[in-house]
Design brief:
Layout (H helix, E strand, L loop, with lengths): L1 H15 L4 H22 L2 H8 L8 H36 L5 H5 L2 H22 L12 H28 L2 H23 L4 H5 L8 E4 L4 E6 L1 H11 L3 E3 L6 E2 L4 E5 L5 H8 L2 E4 L9 H14 L7 H18 L7 E4 L2 E6 L4 H16 L3 H15 L6 H21 L3 H13 L1
Parallel strand pairs: 3-8
Antiparallel strand pairs: 1-5, 2-4, 2-6, 3-5, 7-8
Length: 429
């Protein structure tokens, strides 16, 4: 039952990121509302309303048809324009920043709900139009349904104004970076919180897994999620420990070892373990905070490319990635999960040294020629070195990257003044 629930949640999270998810739901709501209003109209609501508030309702069938047709045509034009704006936003974000940003922008609920409101109102007005006859008079017209359709159309006009404002904000790099940072920060804090108050002796004494029994993945895809509680139950039932050899968020290949077990497992248990592991064809920051570092790195590299040449954006991204690294330094590199004073699972992770190298290697390659960016990176690394209470290996990794950055910069700079400036800055810090 737990496995089914986890799979339903994962499926919902995946589908929710699709641009058609909320529009489809709201459109379906519009159709249901139209049929609901037809049922209400059969109870004579419009007849009672026209006697009490005659000025609110339309008195002629031809006028009603004209108004509803105009509402439908106008909404279709507005929806086409809005979808065009979304496609333009995605195109600009992909070309100016990074294609990896597209899933996050597509899954923006505000845009989806507004587009869904357009579609739902169109569907409602179309089905309401079916119930109108040109010969209808005010006592036989579905007056309340028509009035509600006009109200929804006015609401769509207000939503369109907000849509233009929101989409102009969404394309701004500061807002994009802020969204990436907030999502990854929430994910990292959740992981760090799970590591608190754990017995470090259990981590240090976790057995060597080199000679354990190996098992391969049944399918390819990004290792997205794992149900730790269910895996724990399986480990207790089989009296074994597991070692997942593929880091979460990394693409898993068939016929390559995916996990190891301390004891040999039967086919049923293996299938049960994989039923609690989800593979996907895409990546989400909510599932893998490493993706945030990748996205910010690509934004920095793209901003410093000759076709873009935008050091201001690169500096903004470095500021955000600095805070993410500082937060990552609070997380241990063990990847060992403990429950009820038992270390039952070891997860392969991207270590801090690997993560820092992957980020800095890309940035150094494409940004080492710019003195301002190099100085900003030196300030970032020295700030990270000043973090207290972190593992000594983290500080060693930062020192190594700082030395590599200075070496690459000195080889790239042609002006002696620039070389001396970064030397002075590194010595000062």
């Amino acid at each position: 039952m737990k496995t089914l629930f986890i799979r339903i949640i994962t499926f919902f999270n995946t589908v929710r990121s699709k641009i058609a998810f909320y529009p489809t739901l709201v459109a379906l709501g519009g159709v249901i509302t139209a049929f609901g209003m037809m049922i209400i109209e059969n109870e004579g609501v419009s007849r009672a309303l026209v006697e009490s508030f005659p000025k609110l309702l339309i008195e002629d069938g031809d006028t009603a048809l004209t108004i509803m047709s105009a509402c439908i045509g106008g909404l279709i034009s507005m929806m086409v324009f809005s979808f065009s704006m979304v496609m333009l936003l995605l195109s600009q974000a992909s070309s100016n920043f990074s294609p990896r940003l597209l899933p996050g922008l597509i899954s923006d609920k505000t845009h989806q709900i507004i587009l869904g409101l357009y579609l739902g109102t169109i569907m409602y007005n179309i089905f309401t139009l079916f119930s109108i006859e040109p010969t209808d008079e005010k006592y036989t017209l579905p007056g309340l349904s028509i009035l509600f359709g006009i109200f929804l159309t006015i609401l769509c006009l207000c939503a369109f104004i907000y849509f233009i404002h929101n989409i102009s904000q969404s394309i701004q790099i500061n807002n994009i970076l802020d969204t990436i940072y907030d999502t990854s920060k929430e994910r990292l804090n959740a992981i760090i919180e799970k590591e608190k108050s754990k017995d470090t002796s259990l981590i240090e004494n976790f057995p060597d897994t080199e000679n354990w029994h190996s098992y391969t993945a049944p399918e390819t895809g990004y290792f997205q999620n794992i149900s730790f509680s269910n895996i724990q139950d399986i480990c207790e039932e089989q009296k074994t420990k597991l070692h997942v050899t593929v880091p979460q968020g990394v693409f898993a290949l068939q016929h390559r070892t995916f996990f190891k077990s301390e004891k040999e497992l039967d086919e049923e248990t293996i299938n049960k373990i994989f039923s609690n592991i989800n593979f996907a064809r895409g990546e989400l920051i909510g599932d893998n905070y490493i993706l945030a570092f990748k996205q910010m790195t690509e934004i920095i590299v793209k901003a410093m490319s000759p076709g873009i040449n935008d050091p201001g954006t690169a500096i903004n991204a470095i500021d955000y990635i600095t805070e993410l690294f500082a937060l990552r330094m609070k997380k241990r590199d063990s990847g060992i999960l403990i429950s009820n004073d038992v270390a039952f699972l070891k997860m392969a992770i991207v270590t801090f040294r690997e993560l820092l190298y992957n980020v800095m290697a890309s940035i150094r390659t494409y940004c080492k020629h710019d003195p301002i960016i190099v100085q900003k990176l030196i300030l970032m690394l020295t700030y990270l070195k000043e973090q207290k209470g972190c593992d000594a290996s983290y500080t060693e990794a930062i020192t190594t990257e700082l030395e590599n950055l200075i070496i690459d910069a000195e080889r790239s700079f042609e002006n002696e003044y620039d070389i001396q400036a970064i030397r002075n800055l590194s010595e000062l810090n």
